[in-house]
Amino acid sequence: MSFEIWPAIDLKDGAVVRLAEGDMAQATVYGTDPAEAARNFARASRLHVVDLDGAFAGESRNGDAVRAILAATGACVQVGGGIRTREAIDSWRALGASRVVLGTVAVEAPGLVRDAARDHPGAIVVAVDARDGRVATRGWADVSHMTAPDLARRFEDAGVAALLFTDVGRDGLLKGVNAEATARLAEAVSIPVLASGGVASLDDIALLKGHPGIAGVIIGRALYEGRFTLDEALEAAA
């Protein structure tokens, strides 16, 4: 299994931003042209796109920006943020999203996720967002009593493409990835795990790459702030 680099494009009010710990009040704007950001990252062959406004609203809020990204690149694009109905899942797939990321509905309506995974083989990713070990939903505003492994095991036999594990307390802070918690999740299930949250250096890539169950990493602020280049990340992953 090759180790995958997924540059992140987070969208707020049509702009490319990064948040700190998922706090919409702590948004740093890195650009106003999402399609340009997609083209800049296209050589990664993978893009992770999140409609942040949609994550809080429970429905698409940056649809035009996401569609512009899909039109701008032939990369494998996984789209998330407020996708909570079967209609929304089917719509993004029809518009060209390679993968759809489902978080809140994985907690609140697991049957919907299982049905979508059956009908869209290899295209459904379950977001396992954890704050202090507990699963966070609805734009990370609500924290449940469920642990990350508990949620992951729900979908062990569902045919989902991957689990996207984010340590909310590290996201956007450049504190370093929580490799230990990511590895524990990867050991708890047979589903490939993508790591997210806190990547600060190429050392984080090396830490994650060494675990057989971790399939790749989402990288955001570290790329935007020049901690390392995309080419360096791709070389570290190779």
How would you sum up this structure, described in words?
By secondary structure, the protein is an alpha/beta fold. It has one domain (4-237): Aldolase class I (TIM Barrel). It has helices at 34-41, 52-57, 63-72, 86-94, 104-108, 110-119, 148-153, 179-188, 202-209, 221-224, 230-237; strands at residues 4-12, 15-20, 23-31, 46-51, 76-80, 99-102, 124-131, 134-137, 142-147, 162-167, 193-196, 214-219. The mean pLDDT is 94.
| Strand elements, count | 12
- Which CATH architecture is right? Alpha-Beta Barrel
How many domain modules? 1
Largest sheet at a glance?
Answer: 8 strands, parallel, barrel
Number of discrete helical segments: 11
Instruction: Outline the low-pLDDT stretches.
Output: none
**Average of pLDDT:** 94
As a percent range, the share of strand residues is: 25-35%
* Backbone structural class: alpha/beta
Level-1 CATH class name = Alpha Beta
The rounded distance between the terminal residues' Cα atoms is 11 Å
Given the C-alpha coordinates, what overall shape results? globular
Strands in their spatial order, largest beta sheet? 1-4-5-6-7-10-11-12
Radius of gyration computed on alpha carbons: 16 Å
SSE pattern, N- to C-terminal: EEEHEHHEHEHHEEEHEHEHEHH
What is the CATH fold-level name? Answer: TIM Barrel
Would you identify the CATH H-level superfamily? Aldolase class I
Estimate percent helicity: 25-40%
Overview features:
238 residues; 11 helices; alpha/beta; TIM Barrel; eight-stranded parallel β-barrel
